[in-house]
Amino acid sequence: MSSANIKHLLLAQFARLGKALSHPNRLELLEFLAQGSRGVDELAGLSGQSVANTSQHLQQLRQAGLVQSRRQGQRVLYSLAGDDVVALMDALRRVARQHIPDVDHLVHRHLDPRDAMEPVPVDQLLERIRRGEVTVVDVRPEAEFQAGHVPGAINIPLDELEARLGQLDPGREVIAYCRGPYCVLAYDAVHNLREKGFRARRMEDGYPEWKNAGLPVEKAAS
Amino acid sequence: MSSANIKHLLLAQFARLGKALSHPNRLELLEFLAQGSRGVDELAGLSGQSVANTSQHLQQLRQAGLVQSRRQGQRVLYSLAGDDVVALMDALRRVARQHIPDVDHLVHRHLDPRDAMEPVPVDQLLERIRRGEVTVVDVRPEAEFQAGHVPGAINIPLDELEARLGQLDPGREVIAYCRGPYCVLAYDAVHNLREKGFRARRMEDGYPEWKNAGLPVEKAAS
DNA sequence: TCAATATTCAATTGATTTATTGAATATTGC
DNA sequence: GCAATATTCAATAAATCAATTGAATATTGA
Fold it and tell me: I need a surface site. Which of A32, A176, A189, B166 has the fewest CB within 10 A?
């Protein structure tokens, strides 16, 4: 086999990977999976598409090598193929933010300028949690929270934030986080909390990055 | 605008990036561009496709934000949008190698096992070049060499290697490199050189990574 | 074994993508 | 201004992809 042929075979394989990343639905599935294993039905619900459609997208992701599946009883659980997939998605987001004006624009328009200036770095946060200096709020839906979350965090999905403000100590700073650096839930939460008079900041990055950094993780009792 | 809408707008933008990475021809163009600026005509020649086709792929890459173009006289010069694009391609290759059995297989089948074991790390190499301990051979085509290469390297395209063995000092170790960690030219060169009795190893990674690491670069006089 | 649940397969339709071709545009050198 | 060169645009046909629908498969619990 000639070098040129090998080169083109390799390029074809890389392109298959790119193709898997070329549909919004699949990217959304990858984002959910970055938070933990999920069944097809569950993913269909989270992404708001039909089960059959979800299944087909998942199979494309699996054929591309981005996710893997294992059977557990009646259900088939999907999960990311490895941490390097998270790194790949991160590289994708980074390029998008850097070189597509719309992306940077969309993100910035939707956040209080101070939020952008004061994200809490992940490494400092762990120490502050241990000292009990901050209230950490996970604003993702309950299902995602139960699959794994930052130790000591309490789960208040964004929808319920206003109704459950009473659970928060007004004297302590609140740190909000969600699915990742581009997840806007945390931005919205910080914005709302500040309007109510809380000191609030968002965690830089989200749960997938936290988990991926090897930091401790807490799970709901099953 | 609701958070959900923003999220889907962002996903659509990320997907556009993925789509740009979903065709082998475009990936090949990106690999050439990782070595320096090139004109459309030149890229068409290098990748062996029509000029019109090349132009259209380049425009897709530009719309996706992966490359940029500037006019210089009659020609339009294309180049990568930034270093993060190299990082993205690297993440893509890494995932492919890790999770697509064929890719790892293709790469390994084509190299002498010792080559895999003894790649020369880039950081050590610079010092050894300065001390004149090694002969560095750039096995890429001449046009790519002239656009930029490792300081002190000599250019012997793979085709000409056998005919030009006389230019190499048999007493000095030869280090071969080409376009990147997946470029097979360097593997082939090392293999051929060893058959002729030379001590030869390949440089880990290739010219784009060398340049991207901020290491010194030499260019042909223009 | 049988019904119930979860997932996958298969077939269809409409939309998108690719390579090719030839024409159109922009810049240089005369 | 005019010819020559480099690049881009526009239109086409073949190929591929996405969402929907209904059927098929596999596992659990009775």
Answer: B166
